[in-house]
Write a structure and sequence with these properties.
The protein is α+β, with helices and mostly antiparallel strands. The chain starts with 5 loop residues before the first strand and ends in a 9-residue tail after the last strand. The protein is built from three helices and nine strands; from the N terminus they run βαβββββββααβ. The longest helix has 16 residues, at 26-41. The strands form three sheets. Strands 2-3-4-7-8 form a five-stranded antiparallel β-sheet, with helices on both faces. It has a two-stranded antiparallel sheet with strand order 1-9. A two-stranded antiparallel ribbon has the order 5-6. The protein is globular, with a radius of gyration of 16 Å.
Length: 191
């Protein structure tokens, strides 16, 4: 199974709505396995189709909670319902508990308020439906990856002053245009 290059912000596929998956075949199952391998090697806790240049509505996730329970799976054609996030001011954001990073903006982390609870409905790589109710970090992972399917990166949701800081980091790294990617296991984009 090959490791796939991860696209960096500015790549058009990252900034447009992904298309529904219509074929549940060996190609899809191979893509899912390649995405797992890529995510694990990166390392990351989630990876969406657009991040590997595939404009399809799917993401993989893998995260172990504080009780040592592994949450790992693939969500194809997901629908996500969220509880309303608690409004915040910049002073209320907890940089330890609410900071996110993204494999498509490698090396950067900024605090972002997300909904505490979500309900994910999707199908797996075989077309079998499932539902997951999640809270805390798993809910954050689902929201982050779902955003990718609609053409949003977490940086697009940042408020002042973090939006300015991430824009500066993107310019400093010469990102923001098409054709940039990194390969887990070979490249070290975080410096």
């Amino acid at each position: 199974m090959p490791v796939l290059p991860i696209r960096i912000t500015g790549e058009p596929v990252l900034h447009e709505r992904a298309a529904e998956v219509t074929a549940f075949d060996d190609d899809l199952r191979t893509l899912v396995q390649d995405m797992y391998e890529t995510m694990d090697l990166a390392p990351g806790v989630g990876l969406a189709g657009p991040q590997v240049g595939v404009g399809k509505r799917l993401f993989v996730y893998s995260w172990t909670d504080d009780d040592d329970v592994l949450h790992r799976g693939v969500a194809v054609n997901p629908v996500l319902w969220t509880t309303p996030p608690v409004p915040e001011s910049v002073e209320e954001l907890d940089e330890d508990d609410e900071s996110e990073g993204c494999l498509s903006i490698p090396g950067e982390r900024f605090p972002l308020r997300r909904a505490e609870g979500v309900l994910l409905r999707a199908v797996d790589e075989h077309g079998e439906p499932f539902e997951v109710e999640a809270s805390g970090w798993l809910a954050r992972i689902f929201q982050h990856e779902y955003d990718h399917l609609d053409g949003y990166l977490y940086a697009d949701r940042l408020g002042h002053p973090y939006a300015k800081q991430v824009a500066k980091a993107i310019r400093k790294s010469s990102w923001g245009g098409p054709g940039q990617s990194w390969l887990p296991g070979r490249d070290h984009p975080e410096g």
